[in-house]
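Anyone else keep sequences and structure tokens together like this?

Example one:
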Amino acid sequence: MKKYRPNVAAIVLSSKYPQKVEFFIAQRSDVEDSWQFPQGGIDKGENPKEALLRELKEEIGTDEVEIIAEYPDWVSYDFPKTIAKKMYPYDGQRQKYFLVRLKPGAKIDLDTKEPEFSKYKFVPYEELFKYVTFFKRPVYKKVLEYFKKEGYF
């Protein structure tokens, strides 16, 4: 039986939302050319929203966000073999996705205590999948299609 790590993920929209829809993506500092949304494990005793805010603060230096929506289900994906070794005993992640908007004036700072990202950018939906790492694309597409269908962008 596969074992999945409980995790949260943030689809971060810029503070210009809803006038301008642009998505925050960041390049991992440990994997070359690997771009993704901020995400991280849920600690014991934490609920997904608490984990979301903590992870954003740890990864992008701010938790100054407004939660717009939450994906109704948990979504799972398997790690590719190269990553699975590092993530033992987990075979993949089981994630709860949140759609959030940066509050005006929120400052992104990747120079955190344990930097996970080396750079970031905001991209329109049409460009998102040019950057996002291959094994996360199916999950991202599923979740983004849901938010699109719900009328968020």
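And example two:
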Amino acid sequence: MSVESRLPERDVLDGQRTHWDATFSQKPEMFGVEPSEPALKAAELFKRAGKTNLLELGGGQGRDTLFFAREGFHVTVLDYSQAAIEAITAKVDAAGVADRIIALLHDVREPLPFDNNVFDCCYSHMLFCMAFTALELDSLSQEVRRVLKPGGLNVYTVRRKNDPHYGTGIHRGEDMYEVGGFIVHFFSREKVERLARGFRVLSIDEFEEGGLPRRLFSVTLRKERQ
């Protein structure tokens, strides 16, 4: 089998959960405490659109979660790392936003634990470019669409295929490469457009983050119908 056609190895992808748990436990503020630039922009967009009930996927240690809550959003945040959920929970009371954050342990490869048409908006920073297969990504996108209200907004960021890390490290199938122990799924614009099934694409913007720098897409979608 060629490298290009290599299928993902389930046990390797599943092992990322343990890796993230250990990393979050060892590095309490791995991504810092200030909100990310995508979160700042998403908050502005959601406010202009009158969206207040927010679902965040892959909250990590909570830097964006706490920011959204301080900005007045009601945030339900999911992460599959126990260490991440514990970190967020520990920060909530000190930040004075306990009434605006619900933190839940959940693997988003499984159906989202919510009814249809619950949330005004969804936000995720680099969650979609974790160790998910193309089929899992399509399922997740449709789950996000299901739990959003009609007219709901979905904002997510993913690393692009012209990122410096693309094609380096260990190939883990499809467009996934493991670098420094972390598996990243890299995206083309075409992949973003395919995942937008059932949404209206409002924007696909390119930006850079960090010292490498990481090259990313910021994607804004709107649920158009039931």
